[in-house]
Design brief:
- The protein is α+β, with helices and mostly antiparallel strands and 105 residues long.
- The chain contains 3 helices and 5 strands; from the N terminus they run βαββααββ.
- Strands 1, 2, 3, 4 and 5 form a 5-stranded antiparallel β-sheet that branches.
- Strand 2 and strand 3 form a beta hairpin.
- The protein is globular.
Length: 105
């Protein structure tokens, strides 16, 4: 499994709007692409005082599945225009990690 990890940051005023946008539009749009090997997306949120950080973790079966989703420049971030309007900054690239062990307790 491959984990694709990305961070975006926004103001406290825009945090709930951004979270709703992900839930209502962005995530369903990704899932509608029916990408082979795409398993799930996780959303994490953290208050940093001056801003709010969001982290997404997408899970794919293989790096080739990530390439199928994002193209040959697969490290490039995927931030739709409507999300860019409420984010104050974001990672320009995503990091990719191989899952080497997984425990469900």
């Amino acid at each position: 499994m491959i984990k694709r990890i990305w961070h975006g940051y926004t103001t406290h005023e825009n945090a709930d709007t951004y979270q709703a946008l992900l839930h209502d539009t962005v995530f369903p749009g990704i899932e509608a692409k029916n990408i082979p090997g795409y398993r799930k997306i996780e959303l994490l949120r953290r208050d940093l005082g001056q801003e709010v950080e969001f982290m997404t973790i997408m899970t794919f079966d293989s790096l080739q599945n990530v390439i199928d989703f994002q193209g040959e420049d697969y490290e490039r971030c995927y931030v739709p225009a409507e999300a860019q309007r409420v984010l104050s900054r974001w990672d320009l690239t995503s990091a990719h990690y191989e899952e080497i062990e997984h425990h469900d307790y």
